[in-house]
Every structure is written in structure tokens, then in C-alpha cells.
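Quick one:
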Amino acid sequence: MDKKIDTGETEIDLLHLLSVLLKRSWIIIICVVLAGAIGFCYSAFFIPAKYQARALMYVNNSSISIGSTSFSISSSEISAARSLLSLYVVILKSRTTLERVIAESGVSYTTDQLSSMISANSVSNTEVFEIVCTSTDPEEARLIVNTITEVLPDRIYEIVNGSSVRVVDDAVTPKRKSSPSNVRNAGIGMLIGFVLSAGAIIVLDLLDNSIRDENYLLETYDIPVLAAVPDMDSKKSGGYYKDYAAKPNKNVKA
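Output:
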């Protein structure tokens, strides 16, 4: 009798795993729905909503002198706009600037906390840059940004000679939250539910070494099947053994 040599390797039948997932698809669907609902509810009720207020400022520099170094720059040069933006962001997030913003706005944040709430980015690589403040209070976000637009021009003028900073757009009170996204978090929850449920089903199936049918013996051990015990359940056997199972043996005496 021939046996397949055990090489220590496990063969994975992808078609079999796919059929297992299809048979257990109702479990996967339930897990996906539950995980999506949990993700949505957690996002909607447990994560504080955040709002972003924005303002636009324009920086014009015909001649710049920093310390004892002087140089000229054209307002049309994109590379200059990028370097200026980096300089102004440093000035914006400096301790002295933030302390002035806190004092004039009346917010109760430390300079480190306020710095983490503020960001600045160039608009399309131009000399117009956007100041953004993120807060759980939309009115507070607007107040902080507009206070920055009042404080920053004087701070830049004190440090960078010859600069002119003007407000393009003041900040308005945001009406919609910027985060969290309930739909996105629900989608992430559904994806996690699918991966975990499908993974658990596959792992349990791979760990199951019970003999399922004669095909399992043939494929695993290459053993010829001489006989198979029929299923005596009349519902599964189509009634073939119904009469035999129902009739008592007359030769057996109690």
C-alpha cells in the first residue's frame, strides 16, 4: 500500500478554502455588518468632532534683509516663495508669536498645544499661503486664525525688513466638521470585520484534520477505499434505507 511521503509541508487547496468561505458567508456578512456598525457608532459618538478655520495671506517682498545679509528677490520666483513660506511658518510657530496670539485671543492653551493646532501651507506654490487652525470649537478655530492674521504681520515686519504681509481672506466659522469621517470609519470597520472573520474561518479549517469523506483519504494518504458506511438518516439518504431502519429485526428476541 502506497502512502504519500510527509515532507512537513502543508498543501493549501485554494478552491477548497473558497468553498469554505462561501459556505460560511453568512458568518462573514454578520461580522462585516457588526464591525461596520461599531466603527460608525464609535466615530459618531465617542470621537470629538473637529473643525478647521482657514485664512489666506499674501506676502510681498521687494527687498529682504535678515541680520546683516541683504539680497533682492523677485515676487514671481516660485523657489523664493517656498523659502519665504518656510521662514514665515517658523515665525508663526515661534514661542513669542504664539504667546501674543494666546494673550489677544484669550484662549487657555499652552504654546505647544496651540502650535499643534496650527498649520500653514503655500497655495499652488505662490506667495499666498493658507493658515489653518483645527479645534473642537468652530468659533474658537475662527478666533485663533483671525488673531494670527492680526499678530503675524507685525512679527514678520520686526524680524524680516522690507516685508509686507496682507490678508487675502479672513477666517469664517466652519459649518461642517473636518473629522472624523463616519463613513470612512464605518468602511474601515467593515474591512476589519471581513479580514478577521475570513481569517478565522480559514485558520479553523486548516487546523481541522478530521476525515470528511473518502476523497480526503485518497488525496491525503492515497489509500484505496474498500467500503463506505451509508448514512442511515432517511432524510439524507433519500429514503433508500428508510424501510430497513424502521423495521425491527424479528430474529432478535428481547
